[in-house]
């Protein structure tokens, strides 16, 4: 049997989460002599198909036809990289923060947060006894839906601490400039909404929760400038003075503050009030001038219709073909049905699982452009060639 890699040689803080103290995986794996358990999780995440699809999922702007505008893939890379820097200086577990950072948005729907809201509404309309929120759905993705190449079943079988960090990563409340890990036990399978998520159980999870905000605040400004939505001179001067004039300066300022404040305040992960308040002000400014501006909202109605029409059509198709096992010749000639049939078999749904749940899971994993491809296959007439 392999001897586990000894993390204590690297992560020396008394607050560091070590693999040796992990609550483990649902299914035990043989230890690896060269990788920590959390490093193995990094690799399981980046090699899964759900991670690859992030390159074509919206961060802020739908399907940007510009390589310099951020997608969900770049965002998670930014978060994991910045989180690792913070963890290194606090002598916490760099592998754990990287794994959480890379996986924290695996539950996102096509068309970004707007798609998330649409699927949440659809879930209620379809009578499913659950809301659709990307944090909770992220846990479902890594536990049940994500695929590793040619593995016999779906799901990534990640460690408890990574799973907890992913489901507990949302830090949009701004109630406090500091975070402390949740004390006590969590039954991750019982989490149903953001209220029951609570804070992460590890300091590493707290780092990702804060860095997530830091990573998108300035980046979204840069993307809006590239897209022609705003002029850099429109950003309030007090925010520029406090944080910096571009994304690099903003991230640098906030990460230094996060490291220095957390070093001085042992047992806490946080920003000073002098930097937390302008970060909060910048994000609120972004909401008013970027996220909800007329040009950003322009295509939301179309994105809503696309997801609604595809969802209810696929539910109907599953019902009338007994989940694609009978009468499939009556369906349009479309590759989406082959993909969906393989998906159903791989995940292993039971007869008790509603068709609406299957389609919700299926659509939530789609990229923006695959939604449009599927709509074209299912609804647009094709000529005989």
Care to describe what's here?
It comes from Geotalea uraniireducens (strain Rf4) (Geobacter uraniireducens). This protein has two domains: about 5-15 and about 25-105 and about 145-295, Orthogonal Bundle (Hypothetical protein af1432); about 300-380, no CATH class. The chain has a two-stranded antiparallel ribbon. It has 17 helices and two strands. It is mostly helical.
Largest sheet: 2 strands, antiparallel
* Category by helix and strand content: mainly alpha
Give the CA-CA distance, first to last residue: 60 Å
Q: Proportion of β residues?
A: under 5%
CATH superfamily of the largest domain: Hypothetical protein af1432
The radius of gyration is: 22 Å
- Following the backbone from N to C, one meets helices and strands in this order, namely HHHHHHHEHHHHEHHHHHH
Fraction of residues in helix = 40-55%
Total DSSP E strands? 2
The CATH class of the largest domain is identified as: Mainly Alpha
Strand order of the largest sheet: 1-2
Look up the CATH topology of the largest domain.
Hypothetical protein af1432
Mean pLDDT: 93
Summed up, the domain count is 2
Quickly list its features.
about 375 residues, two-stranded antiparallel sheet, globular
Topology:
Elements: H1 37-46, H2 49-52, H3 72-89, H4 94-103, H5 112-125, H6 134-145, H7 160-167, E1 178-179, H8 194-197, H9 203-226, H10 237-243, H11 247-264, E2 269-270, H12 273-291, H13 294-297, H14 300-320, H15 335-347, H16 355-364, H17 368-379
Helix pairs in contact: 1-4, 3-4, 3-9, 3-11, 4-7, 4-9, 5-14, 5-16, 6-7, 7-9, 9-11, 9-12, 10-12, 14-16, 14-17
InterPro entries: dGTPase-like (IPR050135), HD/PDEase_dom (IPR003607), HD_domain (IPR006674)
Pfam families: HD (PF01966)
GO molecular function: dGTPase activity
């Amino acid at each position: 049997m392999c001897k586990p890699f000894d993390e204590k040689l690297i992560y020396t803080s008394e607050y560091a989460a070590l693999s040796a103290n992990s609550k483990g995986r649902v299914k035990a794996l043989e230890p690896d002599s060269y990788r920590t358990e959390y490093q193995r999780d990094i690799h399981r995440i980046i090699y899964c198909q759900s991670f690859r699809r992030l390159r074509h999922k919206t961060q802020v702007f739908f399907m940007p036809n510009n390589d310099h505008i951020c997608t969900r893939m770049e965002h998670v890379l930014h978060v994991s990289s910045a989180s690792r820097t913070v963890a290194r200086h606090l002598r916490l577990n760099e592998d754990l923060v990287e794994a959480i950072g890379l996986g924290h948005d695996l539950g996102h729907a096509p068309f970004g947060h707007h798609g998330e809201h649409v699927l949440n509404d659809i879930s209620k309309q379809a009578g499913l006894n659950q809301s659709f929120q990307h944090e909770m759905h992220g846990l479902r993705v890594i536990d049940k839906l994500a695929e590793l190449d040619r593995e016999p079943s779906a799901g990534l079988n990640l460690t408890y601490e990574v799973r907890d960090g992913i489901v507990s990563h949302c830090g949009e409340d701004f109630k406090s400039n500091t975070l402390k890990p949740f004390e006590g036990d969590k039954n991750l399978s019982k989490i149903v909404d953001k209220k029951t998520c609570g804070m992460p159980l590890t300091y590493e999870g707290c780092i990702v929760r804060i860095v997530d905000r830091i990573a998108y605040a300035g980046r979204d400004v840069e993307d809006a400038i590239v897209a022609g939505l705003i002029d850099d001179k429109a950003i309030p001067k007090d925010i520029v003075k406090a944080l910096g004039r571009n994304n690099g300066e903003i991230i640098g300022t906030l990460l230094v503050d996060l490291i220095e404040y957390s070093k001085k305040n042992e047992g806490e992960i946080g920003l000073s009030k002098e930097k937390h308040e302008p970060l909060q002000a910048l994000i609120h400014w972004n909401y008013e001038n970027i996220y909800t501006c007329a040009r950003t909202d322009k295509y939301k109605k179309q994105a809503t219709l696309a997801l609604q029409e595809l969802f209810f059509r696929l539910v109907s198709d599953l019902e009338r073909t007994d989940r694609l096992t009978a009468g499939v010749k009556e369906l349009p000639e479309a590759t989406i049905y082959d993909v969906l049939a393989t998906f159903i078999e791989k995940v292993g749904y039971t007869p008790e699982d509603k068709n609406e749940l299957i389609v919700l899971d299926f659509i939530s994993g789609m990229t923006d452009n695959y939604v449009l491809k599927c709509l074209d296959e299912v609804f647009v007439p094709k000529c005989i060639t």
